Amino acid sequence: MPKQNRIMKPQRFIFIALFLFLSSSFGFSQTKNQTVPANNPQTAKASPAYAEVLLRKTELLSELESLLVEYTEDYPKVKELRFETASLQKELDVLLAVNPAESSKLTTALGKLMVRKCELNTDLWTLQKEFNDQHPDVKRAKRKLEIFEAAIKDILQGK
User: Fold this and answer.
1) What are the sequence ranges of the domains in the chain?
2) ∠ Cα 31 35 38 (to 5°)
3) What predicted TM-score, i.e. pTM, was given to this entire model?
4) Do 35 and 56 touch, CB atoms closer than 8 A?
5) C-alpha dihedral over 60, 65, 71, 73, to 10 degrees?
6) How far is CA 16 from CA 5, 11, 20, 31, 51, in A?
7) Residue among 94, 66, 80 at smallest CA distance from 125
8) pLDDT tens-place string over residues 81-122
């Protein structure tokens, strides 16, 4: 009987190894063909564009927290930071809505365009509190913002 156990061990090992290999191969082929849901936010969150916008939002939130130690919500810089972080959050939401099949569009360049758009939007908001829409600085700021919006739209909607 002891000789049989020694002979069976290599066969048992080969059988177990073969079984594990086949089961893992079968499991991999099962998961490989599954499709990602169209609204899966994880694809966008892993993109360079999302990281770029999130980085800027995090920097601003950090600055905001340090200002709130000394100032109230009525302080102009606090209001400005709140406005810009809200604008950045809207851009993050846009990125999360992108179909995972089009995730190759979510580049660092797109993220930088979105960050700059938010900065320009904040500049416009600040100018509009001080001047009317006919003021040359307001017109210039609106035009800059439109250019960035068009570039972002071109990337996201371009085929």
Assistant:
1) 1-34, 41-157
2) 145
3) 0.75
4) no
5) 70
6) 15, 9, 6, 22, 44
7) 80
8) 999 999 999 999 999 999 999 999 999 999 999 999 999 999
